[in-house]
Every structure is written in C-alpha cells, then in structure tokens.
Amino acid sequence: MANFFIRIRYSFFHRYDKVRTYKIIFTIFGIIGFSWTFVECFSWIFDGTSYPTSLRSFIREKLVWEGLIILLASLIYHRRKIKIQKTFTNTDITIVVEFCDIFEQMGATVINVMDTFDTTTANNLVNARTVHGQFITKYYPTNIQSLDNEINLSLKNKGFLPIRNDQNLKGKKERYAIGTTCPITTHNKYFYLTALTFMTDTGNVDIQPQYIYDFLSNLWNFIPTHGDYHDSINIPVIGTGLNRLPASYTHQFLLREIANSFFVNSKQRAVCKTLKICLHIKDYKYYDFDEIAFLFNYIDKYLNR
Known about the structure:
Elements: H1 2-13, H2 18-45, H3 51-61, H4 63-77, E1 83-87, E2 94-99, E3 108-114, H5 131-139, H6 144-157, E4 164-165, E5 174-175, E6 181-186, E7 189-199, E8 205-206, H7 209-226, E9 232-236, H8 251-268, E10 274-279, H9 289-303
Parallel strand pairs: 2-10, 3-7, 3-9, 9-10
Antiparallel strand pairs: 1-2, 4-5, 6-7, 7-8
C-alpha cells in the first residue's frame, strides 16, 4: 500500500517543469477545442430541433465537473511513467526500465554481492536493506548454511578460485575477483550472485569506479558461456547507496552504464533477449524517464551498428 501511494506521488505530483506544464495546458485547450467543434457540428446537424439548446444547457450546468474531468484527463495523459522499454532496430534486443520488485520478475536475476560472498546479516556484514540482504531474508531466512554450501559448490563447479585469503576479515576469509559470478537456483528461480564490492577489515564494503566496469564486463561474458539461458534477465541499478563512488556516479549514470554495456556485449554474443533494469520506487527522485528515452535513442543511433 505504501508503494502504491509513492507511485501516485511520483506519477502525478513529482517534478512539474515548464515543458510538462506547457504540455498539460496545451492538452486542456486541445480537449476544449475538440469538444467545442463537436458541439458546433452537432448543432449544425440538428439545426431546427431542440437538441442543440438542450446540449448547451447541459454543458453550462455541468461546467465545473467538465473542467475537472478535462484537467484530470490531461494530468493522466502526461503522468510520469513507471516503465519504459525499447526494442532496438534490426535486433531482438530489448531493454526495459521499470519501477518494480526485482524478486517478482520472470527470468534470471542478478544480485550484486561483496568479493567474499558473505551471507550473514550479523554485524551488518550484509545490509538487510540491500538487494543482497533482501535475497537472503526472502529465500534463506533460517538456512544460511545451505546457501553457503550452494555458493561454494557453484564456485567450484565453475572453476573459480579465491585470489586471496585474508584472515583479518570478520566474515568469510576468501576473496574472489570482482565480477566473479555464482549461479544459484532456489524456489524455482535462477540468480547470478556477482562480486561488486571489496570487503574491508572493518566489515564495511569499498567500491571503486573500475569495479562497476569489471562487474558488468565479467557478468555479460559469464552468462552466455557458463549460465543457463533465460529470455529475460533482471538487474538492479548497482552501486547506489555507496558513498565511495564519485559524485558523478549518480543513479542515472549507473543505469546508463548498465544499458550501454549490456547492448554492446549483446551485439557480440547473445546474453538474453530482454534486460530489465529494476528500480526501487522510493528512488523515484533520482531518475528521469525523458533522459532514459534519450539514452535509448542514442544507443539505437550510435551503438547499434
């Protein structure tokens, strides 16, 4: 219910710039002009009868309600969208950006984790509010050992070896390279747990700009060669909420990097047909769908070669 009201607030009350206000006013006058033309045509067709007079009387009596309906229709037409998608020219590649629950989507789901693949929320090693933390809480609330066993087995089967053993860490001691991807199947859903952040001795995570690119590059290379094929892959906007990234690495910038890297890699080898970038509705202030539409057009024009 809380997310429903956030969606309403985002769609109808967020960011009324000059362009959007102009469009709403233009639509209002457009509806009025169309309605007036209809009334005049109706009056001409039924000239000599009582219908034109009755229609005008009805319009005058309900003028306030009609004005409210026209205003509401214009606001609904120009509401901010919670979903945008693009299928690129001469390809079967589609990118979807949507405010949605990433765990309720069809297809495989990417979960960004730390380089130690820690699984415990004790001592805040895994923040329960992150996508990683929600994954653990939702699917392994009382059986962390089972998840650890699955991770260890999956990493071993895929041939991944630790790059370092760090005994100073509070949680797991073995580190893996950024971008190491561990497939996990649970509750009839398929997940890619992929290392994005560096676990520090204090139990906090560190991230550098290069980690973003290593994460995406290794993930898109891993999926076609070692993952199970799914038509759709869901991914959150990685790196948000981490203060160690430069200020220029905004939510919108990170979304753009995900979309660009996916498309470029998909042109070389098939990753999936549809990438869905899942946004948290409470982060609505950080995204501009007009800019995302511009991004899609840029990809189609300049990267789609």
